[in-house]
Design brief:
Shape: elongated
Number of domains: 2
Largest sheet: 12 strands, antiparallel
Radius of gyration: 30 Å
Bound molecules: 2-acetamido-2-deoxy-beta-D-glucopyranose
């Protein structure tokens, strides 16, 4: 009896602790009917400056008590805007088509002037970071459910989402009972790799991967702005594991997008279950280039492979234009890791109206144009020969006719 009471108490307490900081909110539309629902946990980790070359990391959670001011519900777009503490906010933008809805972006805004969260901060600015999580294909009239942890990293901010239940475009005025479960929560259906054959001496030849799917990635400073950084490419990574070279493709529809635009430097961060890649672009006033790459690959077996190069100077084009390279391009990041890009186009600075500016082609693309100078050269040589031959024939004739005159 005592034991059971104890157990009940323990469970109740455990439950209490477990739910200690879940944030549950309901947003009603203009007709006062439920249109947005959220019950989730978010942990934040923010690294900020406290002195010259000195930084500290603040850890905090999305509190239970938040405001929903600024949240909006429309037919095809909705925004959940959660305000908390001294000027911080966490906002999620949803869009809908006929059968499904998705999260377009999450914008986290934090106020470095709040000394209770950011003690000794040298800045008193309010900063925002945007991420595009892979919360897509959620059936209309279902809620998105994800118990698994999802890490969203941008610059110096990491957001950890877990125990998430989210429903936008609620129709009947009440939250749905049906859910769309995130991939991470589904039982793993990964095909078992051919590990059994590794005992044989002959190395198993890895099947050639198909060309990676081209992904469209963009970053905007907030919901109300158009993109400030745009990129399109298919991506493959080749890395050494022991003596073997493995290859892996980035899957765009399973990739979280993060990043930030700056005046002198912009970042694009792509995160999937197996790949984390950060591109850092520099603006050297007139030209931009890819300056740094930091890549982590988590293979199915073995330790993660980390490769960083902060001294690159590729993908060079004028600020205000975009860089394009349709052909497969190879970038040796380190001795052990190589990046292959396909159908690449990037513009890390000065994007206007959410469109790419004129492109500057990579040299690889212009190999055909070598044909033109060669053709012109050959044509000129032939022309010179013809002129010379004509000259000599003419001279001979003249000489001939000269003899006749005299
Ligand atoms: C989130 O933060 C809380 C409080 O610091 C901690 O108890 C919890 O374990 C964290 N959860 C995750 C998933 O990191
Ligand atoms: C701060 O770091 C930069 C580069 O990492 C270095 O050049 C500079 O001397 C450092 N400043 C101080 C005060 O340590
Ligand atoms: C923020 O800091 C700047 C100088 O660092 C100061 O001039 C300004 O008054 C501060 N603003 C607020 C709101 O504290
Ligand atoms: C976006 O625009 C809406 C309405 O125009 C405004 O209420 C909101 O504060 C704006 N958000 C940001 C982050 O500028
Ligand atoms: C991702 O794309 C592949 C095809 O490219 C498709 O089979 C798969 O269903 C998509 N996954 C999601 C979650 O949309
Ligand atoms: C960008 O670089 C220029 C020149 O190097 C410098 O004057 C300016 O302060 C930098 N801007 C920012 C925001 O770092
Ligand atoms: C690029 O850098 C220059 C000099 O630092 C700056 O004037 C210009 O505004 C920057 N361009 C963009 C698009 O940020
Ligand atoms: C690369 O990223 C990892 C993980 O975020 C970080 O620990 C490391 O310092 C980064 N390396 C460089 C050179 O920036
Ligand atoms: C960076 O690259 C330049 C030119 O390729 C080279 O001169 C310089 O030594 C490199 N610096 C480092 C730290 O690798």
């Amino acid at each position: 009896m005592f034991c059971c009471a104890f157990l009940v108490l323990f469970l109740a307490l455990g439950n209490e602790l477990h739910l200690s900081h879940a944030t549950e909110v309901s947003v009603n539309n203009t007709e006062n009917k439920l249109c947005l629902y959220a019950n989730l946990m978010v942990n934040f980790s923010v690294t900020y400056e406290v002195g010259v070359n000195k930084s500290e990391t603040a850890l905090f959670v999305l509190p239970e008590n938040v405001t929903t001011e600024g949240s909006t519900c429309n037919d095809t777009t909705s925004t959940l805007q959660l305000g908390f503490g001294d000027g911080h906010s966490w906002a999620v933008k949803f869009t809908k088509d006929t059968k499904t809805y998705q999260v377009d972006a999450i914008v986290f805004t934090y106020n470095l002037n709040d000394s209770s969260v950011f003690p000794n901060s040298t800045s008193n600015e309010t900063k925002s970071v945007m991420v595009k999580p892979t919360i897509t294909n959620v059936g209309v009239d279902t809620y998105y459910s994800c118990k698994s942890k999802v890490l969203l990293k941008v610059e110096s901010v990491t957001q950890t989402l877990y125990d998430v239940a989210l429903q936008a475009f609620v129709t009947n005025g009440s939250k749905s009972d049906t859910d769309t479960v995130c991939a991470a929560d589904l039982p793993t259906t990964t095909v078992a790799p051919n590990t059994t054959v590794t005992t044989t001496a002959a190395p198993t030849s890895t099947p050639t991967l198909p060309t990676p799917t081209t992904g469209n990635y963009s970053i905007a400073p907030d919901f109300n702005s158009t993109a400030c950084l745009m990129a399109t490419f298919g991506l493959r990574i080749g890395y050494k594991q022991g003596d073997k070279v493995e290859t892996i493709n980035l899957v765009p529809n399973a990739t979280n997008v993060g990043g930030a635009c700056g005046v002198n430097s912009s970042d694009l961060i792509l995160t999937s279950n197996t790949i984390t890649i950060m591109f850092t672009f520099s603006n050297d006033s007139k030209m931009f280039h890819l300056h740094a790459l930091n890549i982590t690959v988590k293979p199915a077996t073995g330790a993660p492979v980390v490769a960083a190069n902060t001294n690159m100077s590729v993908w060079v084009a004028a600020v205000g234009s975009s860089y394009m390279c349709n052909k497969e391009q190879t970038l040796n990041v380190t001795d052990t890791l190589t990046l292959y890009t396909f159908a690449l186009r990037v513009q890390p600075f000065g994007v206007k109206k959410g469109e790419f500016a004129t492109a500057e082609d990579c040299r690889d693309d212009t190999t055909e144009s070598w044909v033109v100078p060669i053709a012109i050269g050959v044509a000129l040589t032939v022309l010179v020969l013809i002129v010379l031959i004509a000259y000599f024939i003419g001279r001979k004739r003249n000489q001939g006719s000269g003899y006749e005159h005299f």
